Amino acid sequence: MKPMLPPLNALRAFEAAGRLGSFKEAATELHVTQGAVSQQVRALEAWLGAPLFERQHRSVVLTAAARAYLDDIGPLFAHLGQSTARYGLPRAAPRALSINASATFALRWLVPRLAVFRALHPDVEITMDTSNEPVESLREGYDLIVRGGPDTFYGYVMRPFLTEERVPVCSPALKRRGRLREPVDLERHTLLHTTSLPRLWPDWLAKANLPALRPASSMTLDHFYLTIQAAIDGVGVAVGPTALVASDLESGRLILPFAGPRLPSRSYCTYVPETREGDPLISTFRAWLEQEGANARAYVPSRSKRATRKSTNSRIRDESR
């Protein structure tokens, strides 16, 4: 006879997906992939001999019978959690994870997202160092290194997780102060350079068919994050990486003065020592990075929402005159 107790992992996946109304959110809560949740739900449906969700174009909806089933088992999971908390199992020792990333990436992309990872894994202690040294030059035994790529290094497993392009950005105040409608207008402005990336502006100007353009002035800073901050503060125009300035464009701290062109850029990749490839914690952090990278707005539209609204409002005012 078939036992009446269903597979518990499958039941847990169903409970999370049904309660949250999303396989994706259930996967995040359970620290697994969306495909794993879908597979577990299908396994439970096979065990029960009945469908639990109606698969629609971009969503899933509980069947009436599955809704009643969820109402029955949901309190059982809550009670199990409360009972376990009362039992007072000793906490496991904190797990440590050492990371090395470039300063600009850490400051503008990774650190702002770490609160999410910490909420999911409060027992993990993270140590982060920043540097731009090549992977093979690092002497410390880091669990995970973030660098551009894809590149191949002996003894490391590489996986890309975030893509971007590079486009000119400036503050709204700077554009208001001086004409900046077409790429040729850059000759009236200060171009912001970064010591470690000296080819950004020359390459962009060449792609814009303006290789001989001479700006009013130039300023060079030694870190990319300083260059971006100078652009935010209205000092000049920078070539910004879309992945690292997306939030500034969304908030209106930065704008795209013109639609293009766009410079292709290397992807951000994780490099994990082969000897630690099977470590569950490293695998969990790398999978989380890949999910965050997939969610990030790596491709930024030609205008920020605020700039688009402003342009639309201006057109409406002009047409009403």
Assembly context of the chains: single chain
Please describe the biggest sheet, giving its number of strands, its sense, and whether it closes into a barrel: 5 strands, mixed
CATH class of the largest domain: Alpha Beta
Count of discrete alpha- or pi-helical segments spanning 4 or more residues:
11
What does the model show?
The protein has helices at residues 8-20, 23-30, 34-48, 64-87, 103-120, 172-177, 200-207, 224-232, 242-251, 280-295, 305-320; strands at 53-55, 60-62, 95-101, 124-130, 144-149, 156-162, 165-169, 190-194, 217-221, 238-241, 263-264, 267-273. The chain is elongated, with a radius of gyration of 25 Å. The protein has a 5-stranded mixed beta sheet, covered by helices on one side. Residues 304-321 have low confidence and may be disordered. Helix 1 crosses helix 2 (23-30), helix 1 (8-20) packs across helix 3 (34-48) and helix 2 crosses helix 3. It has 3 domains: 8-87, Winged helix-like DNA-binding domain superfamily/Winged helix DNA-binding domain (Arc Repressor Mutant, subunit A, Orthogonal Bundle); 95-164 and 267-295, Periplasmic binding protein-like II (D-Maltodextrin-Binding Protein, domain 2); 166-264, D-Maltodextrin-Binding Protein, domain 2 (3-Layer(aba) Sandwich), CATH 3.40.190. With 321 residues, it is α/β, with parallel strands linked by helices.
